[in-house]
Protein: Fructose-1,6-bisphosphatase class 1
Amino acid sequence: MQRSPNNANTPSIESSRIAVSIGTTLDRFIKNNQDQFAYASGELSQLLRDIALASKVVNREVNKAGLIDIMGAVGSQNTAGDDQQKLDVLANIRFTRALTKGGEAGALVSEEMDSFIDLSNDGKYVIAIDPLDGSSNIDVNVSIGTIFSVYRRKSPVGTPIQEEDVLQTGDEQVAAGYVLYGSSTMLVYTTGHGVNGFTYEPTLGEYFLSHPDMRMPMDGKIYSVNEGSANSFSEPMKAYLQYCKDQRYTARYIGSLVADFHRNMLKGGIYIYPATAKDPKGKLRLIYECNALAFVAEQAGGAATNGRERILSLTPETLHQRTAFYVGSQKMVEKAGEMEEAS
Ligand SMILES: O=P(O)(O)OC[C@H]1O[C@](O)(COP(=O)(O)O)[C@@H](O)[C@@H]1O
Ligand SMILES: [Mg+2]
Ligand SMILES: [Mg+2]
Structure:
């Protein structure tokens, strides 16, 4: 690690992708890397700031979940048929409000909203969001997250939002990432120029660069699968699970996609939510869960498939479409794919 010439104590990393100092604020990092934002007109970077701001508000509520009345369900269900938790609804309000206020977003797609919102403004971007990921873990104080994808609208600004604007392939994302509300709160994102992670410092109310140029190990020894549904897995999936055990891999499953993904990105591993009897098309949603993490994974040197095809190449047909999801270290995703292909 080089030492920056003008401040011997500040570690700095020079790489072909970025020039940063650990401890750079998110705002400063965005400013310094404006050229990484497609079209570089400031709108996309402002969108990212709006997402960061909303995540700070949600973080504040998550941190005191046991003290304030945001535990439990609200009594309604979302399109996926999940019981909406109070924090699902609250997080959806916070992100919708922040993204609507900014004016850069022209449309919003959310797990917690049946159809997309056309903001009828001059916003050039379409945001797809899972406001609160890992809802089953809210009341038990286990890490949860937020997942977001940003697309550029295709229809002309000032005209109604069309299906083509909200049903884009993952390869068309211009930015994507997640927020992890864990022992610390982190925001991790990519704009197609590598992946960077920022840790939230609550007393200063700022995100600081803590994980520059994140790389996912090519191989790993961790597998994350809900084995409780294993009886209804396909034969190739059962075979891959047995292969993981024969290799003496470690089983780790938090039940919050963002948290399982983040761990495997740092340590090397694979997360799989395959097709099951209960969810024959898989459980996770292509547009606001899988596309974002697939973009981050690939940008960090990992891979993401539905068992056979690249997630980012899939063309969605409906907003809340589900898919089987295999994501993580390249060699592990390839191995699982080979076993699928062999069947
Ligand atoms: O309880 P299961 O079937 O293992 O499913 C857990 C998965 O479902 C999810 O909770 C779905 O996400 P939401 O909480 O946003 O609906 C993922 O975070 C998690 O990986
Ligand atoms: Mg989710
Ligand atoms: Mg959710």
About this structure: Residues 88, 111, 130, 132-133, 135 surround magnesium ion (ligand 3) (CB under 6 Å). The CA atoms of residues 221 and 247 lie 8 Å apart. The chain has a mean pLDDT of 91.
